[in-house]
Structure of DUF559 domain-containing protein:
Amino acid sequence: MNHDTPLSPRPLRPLSDDPRRVMTLARLRAHGVPAAEANARCRPGGPWQRLLPGVVLLHPGPPTGEERLQAVLLYAARDRAAAVPAQPGADEAAPARPEAVITGLAALALHGFASAPPLPSLDAVDVLVPPVRRLRSTGCARIARTADLPVPEQISGLPVAPVPRALADAVAGLQDADVVHRLLAEAVRGGHCEPAAVVRELNRARLLSRPHVVDAVDSLLAEGRALAEDRLYRMVREYGLPDPVWNVDLRLPDGPHLGGLDAYWPRQAVAVDLDTRTHRQEGDALWSEHTRKRERLERLGITVVHVTPRKLRDSLEQQAVVVRTALMASGDREPAAYVVVLPR
């Protein structure tokens, strides 16, 4: 018997023509397979199996990782017939905004994290749904209601939470400090996102009170700053900028400390200030001091170029142009006040 051939004598379309191997009972009815017949095929030893309530796998073997993801999305979405974006041969377009978004460890695996468990080994797939949905976690579907459903990224045709949100949702369920540290470190080392974006999501999820998360975040921020500094060195080298003095403190002669800088060109009185502050630091003393430092330097005639790790990652050439322009314009400005330059 062909397991993909519906029992109804007049299906709307043979199931063998449909590329999907996971379907809802509603879609099966659209193909001419009544619920009773579908249930009969899902009995022990039958050619199909029920993965989740209302969701059927159209073969008897173990589901693949992709089939489990499709099943969870079909179960979680409001319109089960259109929850998973259309594939070649499908007869309807995907919704503009999915009703369900994969998150947590499954999302990180889809993003390519080597430190995330492979999809087939996950006991459950975390999926975000709007708060009005009346769904329960069951089987391999772990439902999380949220009023802040993220705009998903499409990976292999599936709606997946962006890395910072997926990380926060994964960390919320993890107690192993080493695992948390590996996931956060890979996010930065792998270029998936900047530390500040991760900290914002962890703060939103109220996870920064957990000691093992705080320790991992401190390491993350230190590593993120080191990567940003490396990009700053590369910018000067690759785009032929004059060599600055690196990592210095400025002081007025016999006067107060003016602040630390990542790069400074004394002849042109141009400074680069690398801003690695995070959301948890906004509004505190560090934030205020950063602003005051810039204002003090600019009153003394020193041009301060403000850069962030993200700018250095995404637009290194543009940042080099900004610095070069500031250096070239120095001759048109009034001479800056004399300052003492000290190693930081």
In short: The radius of gyration is 28 Å. The longest helix spans residues 211-238. The CA atoms of residues 311 and 319 lie 7 Å apart.
